[in-house]
Amino acid sequence: MRHLRLVQPTEEVAMTVKIAFASSDRRAVNQHFGATDAFAIYELGESGTRLVAVAEFIETAMDGHEGKLAAKVELLGDCAAVYCNAVGASAIQQLLAKSIQPMRVDEGTLIDELLIGLQKNLLNEPPVWLAKHIKKQSSSTFAEDEEWQE
User: Fold this and answer.
1) Please, what is the angle between helix 89-97 and helix 66-75, to 10°?
2) How many CB atoms lie within 10 A of CB 18?
3) How high is the pLDDT of residue 143?
4) Do the domain assignments include residue 73?
5) pTM
């Protein structure tokens, strides 16, 4: 597997969630979760979106080997959701156990269009899975900032 993470800019933009897309061309969702040869991972916030990572896999055949699924789920550990064309029952269970929402969309759905829709939802009424992720994220940030005093 090759995993490219983009360097953080010096002017940090306040982003809220990461969303992954199963895509071979980084433009459209066009892969089955278990057989995807690449994920494009974006950060999404109130003021914009940006590509933060790309992961490519060498062997992607759907051979029922659970180890490949676990590696993909682990890679997406800090994502709120993953968009793909299809996803199997085992992968759904593993994703949900890590609080990652699997989202099925039609093949060829453009990533930019999905990001625009998600950003509008983030500003207005986020879907339940997104609201839960934001709440969990903000409570963990609060816990990290909290210090005990006696």
Assistant:
1) 40
2) 21
3) 46
4) yes
5) 0.81
